[in-house]
Design a protein that fits this description.
Two copies of one chain form a homodimer. Chain A is α/β, with parallel strands linked by helices. Chain A is built from eight helices and twelve strands. In chain A, helix 6 crosses helix 7. The first copy, chain A, starts with a strand and ends with a helix.
């Protein structure tokens, strides 16, 4: 039998799933709208029915090994989604238990950035690494730590919330209830806020003055910067400065071999990598300078969240083997 | 045979060593002056001869299992002391290799804060914990992380330098070459600098106005605060505020069950614990609030650095057992 895992990425708007083989090829894919269900049970039934549809199309010689799920506020230890701010269902949602009862295979849940970190280790650029960090730059800023070859989960299952370290205690309002968190500056939303701040503070002409906050996105800012737009270029410099400064603090905590940047903002290439590296080095304790690589994730495509989630299952079986051996 | 380990604590001024049994009792102790030797080889010979002296007094039914050494800039992977700023011998000092050649037992070296963390796990208040942090408050601020029951060493063997995260990039000068590092505010030296800043800024009478910088120490500041001295009390409040703010950032990295405070400054009790806890909670991402314990180390005595260093050997054999099993 060929072995396959299911990877499910639950986002605030869309939920994507796929059947993935051991090499990281996505054999079949499906998706449903997260926002279309007012009850969590109905949302679960929607996922289960989509998954059964995919499994019907899977050749009979393929065995389903398990289900991996990445979701904001997904807790690895409990298998619950806990108090997610980006979903309409509040409280504790016992997702892993529901999947196990329905499909009778292991179900491993973690937050989306942890899933990305395991994905990088299983399929990506961190295959040979034991100590690294993945920073996901999406609507917010997520982070996943691998230390000594093991995903860092922490005592309560919620390690890796670097997006909520402080840049400025009296700074921008954050969804978490605090002010000045890193993700309010460094994320797809953060750079939009920075563009609007720069447009407010300065007089320079900019093509971005014609775009509303709701319509503005990272791709537009990137393209404007490539065309030489001063405000767009300055927005990347500002974002990279703050990211570099804060990564210098993350580095002295866990001493990683590399930090991978993942997601929309990281696709801007040198525009974001150059200031990030420069300011990280300038702010690093000298002992660490020149030692830490800032790299692009190998999973920079649409299927990445599915791959990351599916990799949780392979990682689970690896751990089982280690415990038995 | 009863098993004993050697614990050696190499400080900038004194080097202490002891023979320690499995329960953490120090059977015999000795020490030499670190500063008395201009050549590193002579310092090593001094340590070796002191150790041979202790071993002579050890009953014949005790077996020497190994030597654990805690030293600033001690690298767990290489067994070298690397570019220590607090020692007179520069460059790379291959200490673990020298001890192994001389005594033919395993020698495990790590930095002093990591040794304290393993000590807390082996003999102290963290015996039942898998995820915790130890903050050592001495001349500087050291930190050791245990994640998933394993000491976090990082890729280069230099994880846990939280003392060199940034409080203020244009703040106090630090020995590491940067400015505004946490340890310039939160340490025995840091609180002295704070007292002097407060004496400079304010007009309040204070018994500390009569003491020179060189003569001032944490004990004097603590006693003055207990007597109601406004400047001394404010110095603790200021120190705890900064420590609490920065611990809130450490927490969201690794999600520990507890953070242990160790060393002179932590002996001030409520004076330092109360503002630290208050400001950590106020600055924490809400998801973590009320979940993280701030505790006092169980190894608060003169022998603690020896215990911490000696525990490295027991930890080494535990790991060996896990790899063989």
């Amino acid at each position: 039998m060929k072995e396959v895992t299911v990877g499910i990425d639950i986002g605030g708007t869309n939920t994507k799933m796929g059947l993935v083989d051991r090499d990281g090829s996505v054999l079949l894919q499906g998706n449903i709208k997260t926002t279309a269900f007012s009850e969590f049970r109905d949302f679960f039934d929607g996922m289960a029915s989509t998954l059964r549809g995919l499994l019907k199309d899977l050749p009979a010689d393929h065995q389903l090994m398990g289900i991996g799920v990445g979701a904001a506020n997904g807790n690895y230890y409990t298998g619950n989604i806990e108090h997610a701010t980006n979903l309409r269902w509040k409280g504790i949602l016992p997702l892993a238990k529901m999947f196990r009862e329905e499909f009778h295979v292991p179900c491993i849940l973690t937050n989306d950035a942890n899933a990305a970190a395991v994905g990088e280790m299983v399929y990506g650029n961190a295959k040979t690494m034991k100590n690294f960090v993945v920073i996901t730059l999406g609507t917010g800023l997520g982070s996943g730590f691998v230390c000594g070859g093991v995903l860092l989960n922490g005592h309560h299952g919620i390690a890796g919330e670097v997006g909520h370290t402080s840049v400025n205690p009296t700074g921008r309002y954050c969804n978490c209830g605090k002010r000045g968190c890193l993700e309010t500056y460094v994320s797809a939303t953060g750079i939009k806020r920075t563009v609007y701040k720069l447009l407010a503070d300065h007089l320079e002409p900019s093509e971005l003055r014609g775009i509303s906050f709701d319509n503005l996105n990272t791709k537009m800012i990137t393209e404007a910067a490539h065309r030489g737009d001063i405000v767009a270029k300055e927005a990347f410099e500002y974002t990279g400065r703050i990211l570099g400064m804060k990564l210098a603090e993350t580095v002295v905590h866990t001493d990683p071999e590399a930090i991978f940047l993942f997601g929309g903002l990281s696709l801007a290439g040198d525009l974001i990598f150059k200031p990030t590296i420069r300011h990280m080095e300038a702010n690093l304790m000298p002992l660490f300078r020149g030692k830490i690589k800032i790299l692009s994730s190998a999973l920079q495509n649409q299927a990445a969240p599915i791959l990351g989630a599916s990799s949780l299952v392979w990682d689970y079986f690896e751990k089982q083997k280690m415990e038995i051996a």
